[in-house]
């Protein structure tokens, strides 16, 4: 039976109800020992552009300011919270926050472009598996009454596999750079494995004894030395042996792991026999499962996908997770999170600290029944 | 009410559009004064001619202020998010051909494909401390194209004119612009990437997707479309 008081769409939930739900959620995190933090809504665009690249413009609102330069309406809290922690945070630290984030929705005009997020972030160097489990379990327990589906993954396993490939550092760096862009990652793999034909222009360039003969004038900032350096890199790449079919298959095997957690662990251990470079990451996965189980999570039924979050969660580089509602497939995830160690390094100007966190959308929690 | 037809207000696009309609028995004419942006339609019932900048026609169609409009595919796709849901293509008119392309300096002998551009962009950023800049006025189309093809480490810089000159002036390293023959690109020592065709554009007759036309207007529209031989 449909409860007559139950809203039919997320937009039917009043702002007051969402705010109250956000307060309740933040209160739970505060109770758990997190310090409440606030961040500015206007964020300098340069920092976000540096991290996310031009794509962020399609997702964030840009405002221009003749004095401060381009500003963005906060598209997430993670970046300003990390900056705050790196500037003057004590260790270890647990933070919570609630407030609006702003996202342009060109591809999904039916989705909200302004909504509340409540987050919980843990900065702790001691036991990453425990910190992962702590964040997941807190969100899991809060969301338990809503009967959501949890999905988990671990970008770190794919990264470890790339790092361990027996091929040139340049190729590994190129693959790492595109871990979050599955299509380009695939194209690079095919090229490095000699599976895609060498473009005619590339073949001609490599055969040429004087590639700059018909180059014409050098214009722009990119210098002749930079062009020469890349030609040299292309020659080295052409001389390097291709990535073997067996190694490509192992990467594919990792990307295709999609099981319950214990079965996924089993499968990854099998793969690690032929690809020992992932042993550390797989051991981390195992330790996380133990830590999750110790916090009462039914890991035997928990889903794991090695490629989970690869195309949408670009700063995560380890554990990733999300909670979605099967009864409402049209809704975005109610909660998402993950580990973002590399982000703290990028924003920390030489310093870094392991960090993991998650956000809940109180508007969706209230829509789905919230505290009742 | 009447049906409102938006047509580019000047130049070859206007003349060619007038010719295209004329060849199908619909005469378009500027009103007596050359300075006034209004016109007359003969041979199509209650249709009003509105002369507009080609760049404004997509927005006017979307806002429902005109029912039909002639403009470039490039402008509709750049201006209207989810354009397929908002306008219908009635006919491609066979003129105003232009391609939106990505071009880099001719001297970049190591860069012929998007794959090369991506690798060069990574090296450029490491060397210069900022991302490789691409000058364009087609921000959305270019960004979507590069995202779809997984090119990273670039930034778009706005250029509303003389875009081919930005590389020499060192305000950009590459450009994305409309070209018909490629002559201007060559003259500015630029070359098109082998897989750098973002969009083929030509003058196109669009119809706003609206459900709220009166019966009389819908009859006018149907009759006009029949006369033009489009549906």
Structural topology:
The complex is a heterodimer of chains A (372) and B (231).
Chain A: H1 15-31, E1 35-36, E2 42-44, H2 45-52, H3 56-59, E3 62-63, E4 71-73, H4 78-88, E5 93-102, E6 114-123, H5 128-143, E7 149-154, H6 155-163, H7 169-177, H8 182-192, H9 200-207, H10 224-239, H11 245-255, E8 258-260, H12 261-274, H13 279-294, E9 303-305, E10 319-324, E11 335-339, H14 341-347, E12 355-360, H15 362-367
Parallel strand pairs in A: 1-5, 7-9
Antiparallel strand pairs in A: 2-4, 3-4, 5-6, 6-12, 7-10, 8-9, 10-11, 11-12
Chain B: E1 3-8, H1 11-22, E2 27-30, E3 38-42, E4 47-52, H2 57-63, E5 68-72, H3 73-79, E6 87-92, E7 98-105, H4 114-128, E8 132-136, H5 139-148, E9 154-158, E10 174-179, H6 183-187, E11 190-201, E12 203-208, H7 215-228
Parallel strand pairs in B: 1-4, 1-5, 8-9, 8-10
Antiparallel strand pairs in B: 2-3, 3-4, 5-12, 6-12, 7-10, 7-11
Q: What's the short story on this structure?
A:
The complex is a heterodimer of chains A (372) and B (231). With 372 residues, chain A is an alpha+beta fold.
Major sheet strand order of chain B: 2-3-4-1-5-12-6
Q: Nearest-angstrom radius of gyration of chain B?
A: 21 Å
By CATH, the architecture of the largest domain in chain B is named 3-Layer(aba) Sandwich
- In spatial order, strands of the major sheet of chain A run 1-5-6-12-11-10-7-9-8
Whole-number average pLDDT of chain B? Answer: 92
CATH superfamily of the largest domain in chain B: Periplasmic binding protein-like II
What kind of oligomer do you see? heterodimer
Helix/strand-derived class of chain A?
A: alpha+beta
Q: Alpha-carbon distance between the termini of chain A?
A: 16 Å
GO cellular component, one term (chain B): cytoplasm
GO molecular function (chain B): ATP phosphoribosyltransferase activity
Protein name (chain B): ATP phosphoribosyltransferase
EC number (chain B): 2.4.2.17
